[in-house]
Amino acid sequence: MLALAGYPLGLRCEFLDRDAATPGGQVAPILVGELDDAGRLAELASRSDVLTFDWENIPGKALAPLRRLTRIRPSPTALRLSQDRLHEKALFARLGIPIARHAAVDTRSQLLAALSRLGLPGVLKTRRLGYDGKGQAVIRRAAEAEAAWARFHDQPLIYEAFQPFAREVSIIGARSVSGELAYYPLAANTHADGVLRYCVAPYANRKLARAAALYLRRVMRALDYIGVLALEFFVVDGALVANEMAPRVHNSGHWTIEGCVTSQFENHLRAICDLPLGSTRVLGSAAMINFLGCLPSRERLLGIEGLAFHDYGKTPRAGRKLGHCTILRRGAADRNVALRRALKLIEWT
Ligand code: AMP
User: Fold this and answer.
1) Which numbered atom of ligand 1 lies nearest the CA of 85?
2) Taking the CA of residue 155 as centre, how many other CA atoms within 13 Å lie in the half-sphere pointing to its CB?
3) Which long-range contacts (CB under 8 A, 24 or more apart) does 160-164 make?
4) How far is C-alpha 318 from the chain's CA centre?
5) Which of 120, 243, 250 is the best mutation target for the ligand 1 pocket, counting ligand atoms within 8 Å of the beta carbon and taking the most?
6) Best of 101, 123, 245 to mutate for ligand 1, by most ligand atoms within 8 A of CB?
7) How far lies 204's CA from each of 251, 316, 332, in Å?
8) Taking Cα atoms as reference points, which of 73, 69, 82, 80 lies closest to residue 269?
9) Is 284 helix (H, G, I), strand (E, B) or coil?
10) CA–centroid distance, residue 212 to ligand 1 (Å)
């Protein structure tokens, strides 16, 4: 999607991926190698004007030496911070962004202390390399703590108080080299087993939208951030509690391809290539549904007015994100009718 956004601007992408059959290979050249392969990274960096990433679990150490060869945007510092849930929370706290009560857990006794201090239920998470609900376990009763500890004890952990959220929302924004900012409206996200199923946008709540934009601006300014950044929140008692950030284009912003004047992909490219940012004005009421595990019938979905179909060309596998569709309608009521129709045609496996 980044490569596709680049073509009309005359920007060409090349990707490093472990697998030659990666979706990006359908639209851009692929360099095959591990994401910490110093030789491959240097090869890519030496022929690129700018390096970026759309996955945050890239070893920061591998990127550091590339700074001599080209620009890296967003910065490796932003990447490193987002890779560790504890550091991320410390940043949010320093910037006055509300977060869940939590404790670092490296030993069994620290886990027991965290359970008694923060109470139940809670979520035990790996500090690093967790995404889409991977590397986490909900602890509802004290008796479940031992099993969660056994699963994850060989890595640094964090225990968080469970957030009784009414919904989950995210905000995406872009910041350019000159400090220009652009925000997309809030999206309301529905997850299952930690994976985004679908989202609707704009999620019309002025108070929350203002707070989310303020928090996003604080993070982007503090990090002297360049590119697209996403912040995910829980809505608890009518207020935002930050969960995590993603220093990249985000699944809850895929709807912006059809739903906004300029998509998150184009704005990411504009930001990292030192171009003016594009308008984030919304063109209607949108919904985005992920295709997980299997592709639904293209023919039947395309029968829904205002629906755009995105097939990433991946091999189906249980739980794998294979594509998505976006629905764009004039008003929210109309969009909701179309969303319900589409959801009936989509199965997640
Ligand atoms: P994460 O990997 O932190 O984004 O977590 C994936 C999903 O798990 C979130 O989108 C929530 O649905 C759920 N989750 C994570 N942390 C918590 C929490 N502290 N309280 C309640 N639900 C959570």
Assistant:
1) 3
2) 16
3) 160/100, 160/101, 160/102, 160/118, 160/122, 160/123, 160/125, 161/100, 161/101, 161/102, 161/118, 161/119, 161/122, 162/120, 162/121, 162/122, 162/123, 162/138, 163/100, 163/234, 163/236, 163/241, 163/243, 164/236
4) 20
5) 243
6) 123
7) 19, 35, 10
8) 73
9) coil
10) 18
Peptide bond into 121 cis (omega under 30): yes
What gap in Å lies between CA 4 and CA 2, rounded to an integer?
Answer: 5
Q: Please give the single-letter amino acid code of residue 77.
A: T
pLDDT band at 199 (very low <50, low <70, confident <90, very high): very high
Is residue 53 a contact partner of residue 2, using CB atoms and an 8 Å limit?
A: no
Q: Whose CA is nearest to atom 8 of ligand 1?
A: 194
**pLDDT tens digits for 128-187?**
987 667 899 999 999 999 999 999 999 999 999 999 999 999 999 999 999 999 999 999
Using the atom order of ligand 1, give the atom closest to the CA of residue 122.
19
Instruction: Give the integer Cα–Cα distance in Å for 262 and 187.
Output: 16
Ligand 1 center from residue 122 Cα (angstroms)? 10
CB 327 within 8 A of CB 344: no
Q: How many residues does the chain have?
A: 349
Per-residue confidence band for 58, with pLDDT thresholds at 50, 70 and 90: confident
Tokens of 246: 């993603």
Distance between CA atoms of residues 190 and 192, nearest Å: 7
Residue nearest to atom 16 of ligand 1 (CA): 123
The pLDDT value given to residue 57 = 82
H-run or E-run covering 118: helix 108-118
Task: Specify whether the CB–CB gap between 208 and 187 falls below 8 A.
Answer: no
Any idea what DSSP says for residue 309?
E
Global pTM value: 0.96
CA of 248 to the centre of ligand 1 (A): 19
